[in-house]
Amino acid sequence: MRLHHWLGLLPFLHAALGLAVANRVTPFVLGLPFFMAWIIGGVLLSALVMACVYRLDPANRRPRDRQEEEE
C-alpha cells in the first residue's frame, strides 16, 4: 500500500474522533451548532483528501503522460 493511500484514514479519524471532541452544541460556527459544523468540515476534508489521493496515484495519469514516461 502506497503512502498516499494512507491519507484515506484522515476522514475516518475525523469522524471517529468527532464523537469525543465535538459532542457539544454551544460554540456556534457560522450559525450552526458545533457538531453540525464538524460534520460539514469532515465532508469537505473527505473531498479534499480524496482529490489529493487521486492526483498522487500514478494509476490515474493520462495515457499521454504514461507514453512520455516510457520513452
Describe the structure.
This protein is mainly α and 71 residues long. The protein contains three helices and no strands. Helix 1 packs antiparallel against helix 2. It is elongated. The mean pLDDT is 81.
Poorly predicted runs are none
Helix fraction, binned, reads 55-70%
Count of DSSP H/I helices: 3
Number of strands: 0
Strand content: under 5%
What Rg is obtained from the alpha carbons, in whole angstroms?
Answer: 18 Å
What is the distance, rounded to the nearest whole angstrom, between the alpha carbons of the first and last residues?
Answer: 27 Å
Largest sheet: none
Q: Estimate the global geometry from the Cα principal axes.
A: elongated
Q: Can you write the helix and strand succession as a string?
A: HHH
Q: Which class do the helix and strand fractions yield?
A: mainly alpha
Mean pLDDT: 81
Task: Describe the SSE topology.
Elements: H1 9-21, H2 34-56, H3 63-70
Helix pairs in contact: 1-2
What keywords describe this structure?
71 residues; mainly alpha; 3 helices; 62% helix; 0% strand
Concise structural overview:
With 71 residues, the protein is mostly helical. 62% of the residues lie in helices and 0% in strands.
